[in-house]
Design a protein that fits this description.
124 residues; alpha+beta; five-stranded antiparallel sheet; 3 helices; 5 strands; 37% helix; globular
């Protein structure tokens, strides 16, 4: 095959591979992703954050606490042994962002996203 023909075929092969990966990701990830990008709550407990809504969407369909903890752990959360919550934190200067998945005694999951600075709430 001539070199210019090989170069002409490469973009089509790459586009096909990318499309195949996108389809595979969509079919394997039936549950919505957790949203770590939303605005953080600096007042209250963070239940109105985009993260809280994404937790309800991802874990609200009858998953067991063990399954939720395994999924959260695979996304960088640290879960406590009492199966009460999982937390993921990020330091940002003197502040800490915390994404928290809490479990009720019945096994339902809820989410919170809070930001605390120097041991108190951040003033906006």
């Amino acid at each position: 095959m001539r070199p210019w023909i090989k170069l002409g075929v490469l973009p089509f092969l790459a586009a096909g591979a990318i499309a195949g990966m996108a389809i595979a990701q969509q079919s394997s990830g039936k549950k919505p992703l957790l949203d770590f990008s939303g605005a953080v709550s600096t007042a209250g407990t963070g239940e109105d954050a985009a993260f809280a809504r994404s937790v309800s969407a991802r874990y609200g369909s009858g998953m067991s606490v063990a399954d939720i903890m395994a999924d959260a752990s695979s996304q960088g959360f640290k879960c406590n042994s009492e199966q009460a919550s999982c937390t993921r934190t990020r330091l940002d200067g003197p502040c800490v962002d915390a994404w928290i998945v809490d479990f009720t005694p019945e096994g339902a999951a809820s989410g919170r996203h809070v930001r605390r600075c120097m041991g108190g709430e951040l003033d906006e």
